[in-house]
Write a structure and sequence with these properties.
Length: 550
C-alpha cells in the first residue's frame, strides 16, 4: 500500500467517509466487553465512534502503525482521553511465520543451526507478534530458555513506515501552527527512536540484564537473565519464565493464585524501579506479568524501557506527595520545576487548577482508579496552560496510570495509592537520612565548585566587553503584539491617504491646464477616478474596522 493510500485509510477510518471500514481485528478486550454487554461491536463504519474508526484504520495499516497507536495511547498530554483509551485496545497479534523462514534468520545470526546451540528446540512459536516470534528451547546443560527471533521483513517494513511517518510529521508542522505548537516532529522522532530500539534485540538484552542484576536474589520478583553469547540484533535468548500470565485471569483463579499479593509485589517493584533505579519496565500490561509457581512475579518483554532523570523523578515524587497531602502550592512548584513554561503563564490560575486536582483526589480516594483520574486531570491542566514537560515525565505519569489499571484488572478494588504509601514513607525517611544528606552535600559541592571555577573567567569576560563598549542590555517586551499591529495598520493607512491626496492634487492641477493633448487629459481623469475609488475603499475599511472593534 502506498503512503497516500495509507493516509487516506486513516482519514476514512477516522470518520471522514461513511463507508464500512472493512475487516477488523477483534481484540480480547472487545470480546470481553461484547460478552458483558450482550452484543457485538457494530460492524458498520457509520455506527462506530471516530475513536473506534481511528483504531481500525491503524490496525489495517499494519504493525508499525499499531505500535504507534499504542505509544500514542500513553501520550495523554497529546491526545484526548477517549482516543487514548481506544488506542490502548490495539493488539500486536499477527499470523505466525513458518519455521523454515525463521530458522534461516537463526542461522544467519548465530552462525549455525538450532541443533548446534540447543539440545531441544520447539518449532511451534509460543507467541507471534509483528516484530518477532518466541520459541521454547532447552540448552545442552538442561536449562529451559525462550528464544525470540525477529521476522525476516520486520526491519524493512518498519523503516519504510517510519520514513513515511517522519516525512509527514515534518510536512504537517510546516503547514500547521497547531502541529508546530505540539512539536509533532519531535513526538514522531521519539516514537521512531522507541520502535528502532525494539528492533534491536541486543539493546533489549542489555536492559533485561540491568533489571536482572538489580533484583537478583529477590524472593518477590524475578527478571530473566539474557544469554549474551546466544543473542544478536535479531535473536534474543533468555531464561524461561514459567508461570501463568496475568492476562489469563481464569487460570489464575483456577490455580488459586493470591492476586492481591501478586499485585502488591509488582507495584512495590515498579516503585523501586522508578524512584530508586530511575529505569523502569515501561510496558506494564497484564500479559507481561507472570505469576510463578514459587510465588514470585516474573517480568517479561523488555523492548520498551523508560528512563527518568534524578531531578524529574524527585519532582514527580514531590507532586504525588503534595497531592496526597492536599497542598496545591507545593504541587504547582514541583510541576514548574520540571517544566518549560510560557513567560505569560498565570501561576495563580495554574495553582487554582492544581487545587481542583487535589480536591478531586481527596474526594475520590475510595475509587480504585483514583491515581489515573488524578494524573489525567493533571495532564489536562498542563495542556490548558501550555506547560511543556519532557516526554520522559509524560511516559512515567502514563505508566503509573496504566499500572493502576492492570492492578485493578488482576485484583479488583486494589488501590495503588494505598499500596504506595508505605514505600513513600520509607523513601521520605531515606531522603532525610545521613546518607541522603551526604549525597546531596557532595552533589551541591560539585555544582558550587564548577560555579567557582567558571566565575572568574565569566566575570573577566563581562568586564572586558564592558571596557570595550560592547556591554549591551537586551529588553524583550511581552504582550505588545496587538498594539504594534494597530500602530502598523495606522501608519499604513496614513501613508496610503497621503499618497492618494498627492495623486489627486497633482493630476487635478494637470487636468486644469490648458493646451494639453487629449491623451494626457484622459490619463489625468483616469488617475482621479482611481484615486477616488481608493479613497472610498479606505473609508469603508475604516468604518468596518470600527464596527468590528465595537
Amino acid at each position: 500500500m502506498l503512503w497516500d493510500e495509507r493516509l487516506f485509510t486513516i482519514i476514512r477510518a477516522a470518520g471522514m467517509e461513511k463507508d464500512a471500514p472493512g475487516p477488523v481485528h477483534t481484540t480480547s478486550e472487545e470480546a470481553t466487553a461484547s460478552a458483558v454487554e450482550g452484543g457485538a461491536e457494530p460492524a458498520g463504519g457509520k455506527h462506530a465512534s471516530p475513536e473506534v474508526r481511528l483504531r481500525r484504520g491503524l490496525e489495517r495499516l499494519g504493525p508499525t502503525f499499531i505500535k504507534i497507536g499504542q505509544m500514542l495511547s500513553t501520550r495523554r498530554d497529546l491526545v484526548p482521553p477517549a482516543v487514548a483509551d481506544e488506542l490502548a485496545k490495539l493488539q500486536d497479534e499477527v499470523p505466525s511465520v513458518s519455521w523454515e523462514e525463521m530458522e534461516q534468520i537463526l542461522r544467519e545470526e548465530l552462525g549455525g543451526s538450532a541443533d548446534e546451540f540447543f539440545a531441544e528446540f520447539g518449532t511451534d512459536p509460543m507467541a507471534a507478534a509483528s516484530i518477532g516470534q518466541v520459541y521454547r528451547a532447552r540448552l545442552h546443560d538442561g536449562r529451559p530458555v525462550a528464544v525470540k527471533i525477529q521476522r525476516p521483513d520486520a526491519r524493512q517494513v518498519i523503516e519504510t513506515d517510519l520514513d513515511i511517518l517522519l516525512s509527514q510529521a515534518r510536512f504537517v508542522a510546516q503547514h500547521s501552527e497547531w502541529a508546530r505548537a505540539l512539536g509533532v516532529p519531535a513526538v514522531a522522532e521519539d516514537m521512531a527512536q522507541v520502535l528502532r530500539a525494539e528492533l534491536d534485540y541486543a539493546h533489549e538484552a542489555r536492559s533485561m540484564l540491568t533489571f536482572h542484576e538489580a533484583f537478583d536474589g529477590s524472593d518477590e520478583v524475578f527478571f530473566p537473565a539474557p544469554l549474551m553469547d546466544l543473542t544478536t540484533d535479531r535473536v534474543l535468548t533468555m531464561e524461561l519464565v514459567k508461570g501463568i500470565p496475568g492476562s489469563h485471569l481464569e487460570e489464575l483463579r483456577a490455580a488459586e493464585i493470591d492476586t492481591e499479593r501478586m499485585v502488591q509485589r509488582g507495584v512495590d517493584c515498579y516503585f523501586r524501579q522508578i524512584f530508586e533505579m530511575g529505569t523502569y519496565h515501561a510496558d506494564p500490561h497484564a500479559g507481561n506479568l507472570v505469576a510463578m509457581r514459587d510465588g514470585r512475579v516474573g517480568f517479561v518483554d523488555f523492548g520498551r524501557v523508560g528512563v527518568i532523570s534524578r531531578q524529574h523523578r524527585s519532582a514527580v515524587f514531590d507532586i504525588l506527595i503534595a497531592v496526597m497531602e492536599d497542598d496545591p502550592a507545593d504541587a504547582t512548584q514541583a510541576l514548574l520545576s520540571m517544566s518549560t513554561v510560557d513567560p505569560g503563564l498565570d501561576v495563580a490560575e495554574l495553582q487554582a487548577d492544581i487545587g481542583r486536582v487535589t480536591t478531586l483526589y481527596r474526594e475520590s480516594q475510595h475509587r480504585p482508579d483514583v491515581l489515573q483520574v488524578t494524573l489525567l486531570e493533571t495532564l489536562a491542566a498542563m495542556r490548558k496552560h501550555r506547560i511543556d514537560v519532557s516526554s520522559e515525565v509524560v511516559q512515567l505519569l502514563t505508566t503509573l496510570g496504566v499500572l493502576e489499571g492492570v492492578a485493578s484488572q488482576l485484583h479488583p478494588g486494589f488501590s495503588v495509592i494505598e499500596a504506595a504509601k508505605p514505600f513513600a514513607l520509607r523513601l521520605l525517611v531515606k531522603s532525610f537520612g545521613p546518607r541522603a544528606w551526604a549525597d546531596e552535600s557532595l552533589h551541591a559541592l560539585r555544582r558550587y565548585r564548577r560555579l567557582l571555577e567558571e566565575l572568574p573567567k565569566s566575570l573577566s569576560r563581562v568586564l572586558r566587553r564592558a571596557a570595550d563598549g560592547e556591554f549591551r542590555l537586551g529588553v524583550r517586551p511581552e504582550g505588545f503584539e496587538d498594539v504594534l499591529r494597530g500602530l502598523r495598520e495606522m501608519v499604513d493607512r496614513l501613508a496610503l491617504s497621503i499618497l492618494v491626496a498627492a495623486f489627486v492634487l497633482a493630476f487635478a492641477y494637470i487636468a486644469a491646464q490648458g493646451g494639453l493633448s487629449d491623451w494626457i487629459r484622459w490619463i489625468a481623469g483616469g488617475v482621479l477616478v482611481f484615486s477616488a475609488l481608493i479613497a472610498m475603499w479606505l473609508l469603508v475599511s475604516i468604518v468596518a474596522a470600527t464596527r468590528r472593534r465595537r
